[in-house]
Amino acid sequence: MSDGRREPTDGLEARLPSATRPRVRRVVGLVDTDSFAKWGAHLLADAPAHWQLELLVVDTPRSASPAQLRSAFRGLDGRLGHLAAAPPAPLGVDALVDRLRADPPDAVLVACIGPVAELLVDEVVRRVPRRPVLLTGLPGISYPAKWKGVFFRARADVFVLHSHREVRAYRALASAGGIEPAFALATLPFARSRGQGGLGDERAGGRGDERGRDAVVFAAQPSVPADLEDRRRVVGWLVETARRHPEWRVVVKVRAAAGEHQTHREQWPYPELLPADRPANLVVESGPMAQHLDRAVALVTISSTAVLEAVARGVPALTLTDFGVSRALINEVFVDSGLEGDAVDLVEGRFGTVRPEWLHDNHFHPPAEDDWADRAEELMALRDAGALEVRPAARRSGGGALRRAWERKNALGSADRTAIGVVALVLGTPVRTVKRVLRRLRRVVLRPDASDAALVLPPRSQRDAVGAGTGGANRTT
């Protein structure tokens, strides 16, 4: 029985008649930050077996460190498995484009933060002959849809998302903005069950062999919640949980060591907020989330994609709603999932199990519904025929070479050492500041209810769910 992934063929394609043998395709992935590196590599690892894969790291001020890359590449299949032991050294944009120009691949996956993705897509379109099919996407939970996500990636040929709900939301947002990116569906690599055919029996919340499970894992996020006092409150809940449950290791799972960058900037790292007299069973650890979930009694977070990894493995989870449910907290997707809770639930050891009716629309569709690779194959065939069209950009502003220099400097920061980049920075910074002020004023005056901070729902708890008879909390004692 298959889980939807294409299994290695061990030379089977070479033995097939040429009329039925898939054409070998060369696909290059470009990644930058920790989360995009993990997503891009694991997405490609699930690509068709006849794709020859290469992965390169883009040199930017926020590029993942070698340690972050080793963690991101852990668990890759044979085609990319070597990356965990020897991550590629970052290359500048010009060096990357020169490699693509010298030997254009069939497709390029641009797995990078927005400004870098926009820059790379533009460079490939303008400078690479017989330009490759351009794939892009977002690395985790991407609901509700955000305009910047579409704006920076509008020229890509395939925009990969990971749930039917996300595809609908982004398609509506793009259409309202007057652009039509080609959205496609892929199972989020980290949300794929270790079993066959999807979640199977794990949907009931069974975690298999309980031996060795001793950890409540808190998946820390760099910018959620963003406020210092809110983050101190979270630390207080974790301290109390550790004191109340000495039989558990309460693990603050971080994605970056001191000095390392992440996809989102972190002003108040949790390790720096932990009190000196914290319980000995409250610890800070890094490393691949999969390894932590192997020992997890439960996964706790505000809205990390790690929740989906936990659900896929049948590990109970809790998405803390003490700060409410809002766009800024990226937790609207979990409404009525069965996983919502609060600090009281956490301290009392009450965790949620996912509701079956939530799954299909939210990241756990059957793998047979994924169409991203098929879309890419169709476009590569168009490229072979010289019929691949250039999609229009969402950016309407002019400026020519100077504008491109500004965007390049904005994306690459100190990694851009061009003279025109310095000129663009000097001329463009005052203009950008004025535009930002005007945008904020317009948002406040014309659309006061459109703030990212606006609550969609008040806090919710596992106790509410039990009282309403809509689901059962998984209490671990």
From TrEMBL:
Protein known as: CDP-glycerol:poly(Glycerophosphate) glycerophosphotransferase
Phylogenetic lineage: Bacteria, Bacillati, Actinomycetota, Actinomycetes, Micrococcales
Top-level taxonomic group: Bacteria
Taxonomic source organism: Curtobacterium citreum
A Pfam family it matches: DUF6716
InterPro entries reported for this sequence: DUF6716
